[in-house]
Design brief:
The protein is mainly alpha-helical. The chain has helices at 13-28, 32-45, 50-62, 66-79, 84-96, 100-113, 117-123. The chain has 7 helices and no strands.
């Protein structure tokens, strides 16, 4: 080992918290791919951590990696079926993937769980269910 090469310190719970917070900052700074890289190690060490998975799903979505985003949002919803934000974000993912019927279902679930204005507007409860509703 040369003097300029240092061994990677072992990861610890503190390192994972630091990586999680850094990933939040990277996502806010519009570097979703950097956020995903940091979160990969956090999730590898703590696969049950729903907050890290939700953040990684958001980063995948921001990076236009829709299938990985969808899988992460679905995993979050398996663990937290009442997570209105995860339903809303999954709906946006379906919408961007060209699946309006699936999107509408999750928009409506989000609005039913948390009737905030953005969720209610996206749910379009006053619209008639058209042929696309079953897609």
């Amino acid at each position: 080992m040369s003097e300029t090469t240092r061994p990677t310190p072992p990861s610890s719970p503190e390192t994972h918290v630091i990586d999680y917070r850094a990933a939040e900052r990277l996502l806010a700074a519009r570097d979703p791919r950097g956020a995903v890289k940091l979160l990969d190690s956090v999730i590898a060490a703590h696969p049950e951590n729903t907050a890290a998975r939700l953040l990684r799903a958001r980063a995948f979505f921001a990076a236009a990696q829709l299938r990985p985003a969808e899988l992460e949002f679905e995993l979050v919803l398996e663990r937290e079926p009442d997570n209105a934000f995860a339903h809303f974000a999954l709906a946006r993912t379906h919408e961007r993937s060209g699946r309006p019927g699936q999107a509408r279902k999750h928009f409506r679930l989000a609005a039913a769980l948390d009737p905030q204005p953005e969720y209610l507007a996206a749910a379009r409860f006053d619209d008639q269910d058209g042929p696309e509703a079953g897609s």
